Amino acid sequence: MEVLRVDNLTKQIGGKTIVNQLHMQVNEGEVYGFLGPNGAGKTTTIRMIVGLIQATQGSIHICGHNIGTDREKAMQMVGAIVENPETYSYLSGYKNLIHYARLARIPDKETRIQEVVEFVKLTDRIHDKVKTYSLGMRQRLGLAQALLGKPKLLILDEPTNGLDPEGIREFRGLVRQLADQGTAVFVSSHILKEMEAICDRIAIIKNSRIITEQNVAKVLEGQGHKVRIKVDEVKQVEHLLQQKQFSYQVLDHHTMEIKMDESDFSEFIRFLVLHNINLRSIETVKDSLEELFFNFTADEEGEKKNA
């Protein structure tokens, strides 16, 4: 079921177009990654989705409710952590949640608070003051706050920023669990390895426009494989690869990566031996979301791969 739909979303500030004609759809039980370089329009887009700023043009529907004409009902479906979670450090985690539950008019708030605290694994520390919490604990408290209203759509902007590897792993598990329970999760992060591990689909925004939207598993599967070889001198190999029209990248004077199907590895090795290439080492390398991201966002005048 469709939870979030964005159509022709545009934001102009001072005559400058910050977000330009975005189209997106996020479904129930899906983790949707929103990627892009700094200044591409990610945070502005998120601020429009959560109703913090108004769009210049276009529409945003959450569970069928247009936030422009039915904002209250739309926002009831949303939980969000935008940048750093807002908490009162001099209060306990529990009193913070009580405060926000009252503001949001959460029915049976004590029961709901217990549920979200158990979910984010803060039961043992929930009555301690927030100023004693680690960064990871504060992020989990922020997630508990965002979940108080049982949102259909959860918006996360850089949720693991500053967390250590263990904190990132824990947060990833919580997000994946929410998606498995049917929550639609829209997440923006610059930690591409995490996005690769957690997202079902991703969109990449550059220069205010979405330049691609793809299924993560299919993208990584479709990227195929590469062979990384070390030789005495890559120039000895380059002219051979050009004759065969291989796609390759030179990493240094002795190392290069060649894109090919896994079934062609053995034939490639024989090819090198036949041409008296001294092969120091060879290994297979699979493309990552990070490489896909940089391929899409690289400047046209930047470094290019040979083809």
Automatic annotation (TrEMBL):
- Positions of the ABC transporter domain: 4-232
Keyword entries, A-Z: ATP-binding, Nucleotide-binding, Transport
A GO molecular function term, named singly, is: ATP hydrolysis activity
**Which Pfam families would you find in this protein's record?**
ABC_tran
Membership in a protein family: Belongs to the ABC transporter superfamily.
For this protein, the record's PANTHER family field holds: ABC TRANSPORTER, ATP-BINDING PROTEIN (PTHR43335)
- Protein name according to UniProt: ABC-2 type transport system ATP-binding protein
